[in-house]
Amino acid sequence: MNDSRHKYVFGPVPSRRLGRSLGVDLVPFKTCPFDCVYCQLGRTTLHTARREEYASTDQVLAELAEVLGRRPECDYVTLSGSGEPTLHRDLDRIVSAVKDLTDVPLAVLTNAALLGDPDVRRALLPADLVVPSLDAGDEETFARVNRPCPPITFPSLVDGLTAFRGEYTGRIDLEILLVAGLNDSDEQIEKIKALAARIRPDGIDLNTVTRPPAEADARPVGPERLSRIAEILGPSARIIAPHTPGDDRSGPVDRQELLGLLRRRPCTLDDLMAALRCHRWEAAKLLGQLTEEGVIAVRRHEDTMYYEVRKKDE
User: Are 18 and 75 a contacting pair, CB within 8 Å?
Assistant: First the structure.
C-alpha cells in the first residue's frame, strides 16, 4: 500500500513485466544520463552521469526496513522510479539491505549507461533480475533515441553490458524500446540482434511507446511490426503486453495515495484501479475532483486518456 509519508519507497504498483512491484526511487525526478525521446516522464531535467548521494541513504534504508517489515504483497522489490537508479553512489548498501530485509526478489531497471563502471557492476551482483536497456544498433541511432550526456558513448554502453554479463550470475532481460521510424528498421534490428548475441541476455523484452512521450513525434510501433521484430530477434524475445486491472476492493480511494502514483508517472484509469485495488467509479470520482481543482491534468495519447500531476508552472 502506498504511504504518503514515504519519500523513496512507493507501491506496490502494477508492472507489465514484474507483476506487483514495490518501487524504490533513488534519484530526484528526471535525473538521468539519457534524455530519451520516448520517456514517459518528459524531458530530463538533470542530465548527468555523475554518481552522488541523490537520496538520503539512511532515510531510504529506514523506509525499506519499515515497509518490508510489514511484509507487503509484492512480486519484486524494484529499484527504478523517476530517474536512473545506478546514479546513486550508495547503490551497493541499498541492494545489500534489500537482500537482508526480505526474500522477495530484487529487480533493477537501468538504462545501462553506467555499467562501464566496475563499482556499479559490483553493486548489482546480488540482485535477482537486472533489466538493462539497449535501444540502438549504432552510435548515430543511439544519439537520436537516447541523447546521452558525456562521457557516455555507444561503445561504452555495449562494453559495459558485455562486462556485466561476464560477472553477473542472475537473470538479465534486455529491454529494447522501439520508436517508429527511429530504431525499428530491419537494419537496426539486425544490428541489435548481433549485439544481443554478444551480451547474451536470458531474455529480450520488446516495448514501444505506450504513454505520452517526451517528444510528441515519438510514435509507437504497431503490433504486426512488433511481432515481426520478435521473430527476427528469436525465441528469447517477447512483447511486453499491457497489464489488466487486478482485484477490486471497496471503499474510498486515498487522495495522497493516488497523487503519489501520478507523481511517479502518467497513469490511465485502469492503471490506478490495478495499483489501488479499487472500484472504477471510486477512482474516476477522485480523478474528476482533482481535475476540477487543477491539481492533475489529462493528456490523450493514441486514443487513451492519461492522468498526471499538473506542473507548477502550468
Answer: yes
* Domains in the chain, number: 2
End-to-end CA distance of the chain: 30
What is the extent of the structural domain holding 106?
9-243
Section 269-278 average pLDDT: 76
Q: Which residues contact 288 (CB under 8 A, 6 or more apart)?
A: none
pLDDT score, position 242: 59
How many helices and strands, by DSSP H and E, does the chain display?
10, 12
3-state secondary structure of 209: coil
Say how far apart CA 245 and CA 271 lie, in whole Å. 7
pLDDT of residue 98: 97
User: pLDDT for 24-63, tens place per residue?
Assistant: 999 988 899 999 999 988 899 999 999 999 999 999 999 9
The amino acid at residue 143 is A
Domain C-terminal end among 188, 209, 243:
243
pTM of the model: 0.80
Q: Look up the CATH number of the domain holding residue 273.
A: 1.10.10.10
Please report the sign of the dihedral spanned by the C-alpha atoms of residue 241, residue 247, residue 253, residue 255. Answer: negative
Together in a domain, 75 and 175: yes
Answer yes or no: is 165 within a domain: yes
- Is the same domain home to 294 and 221? no
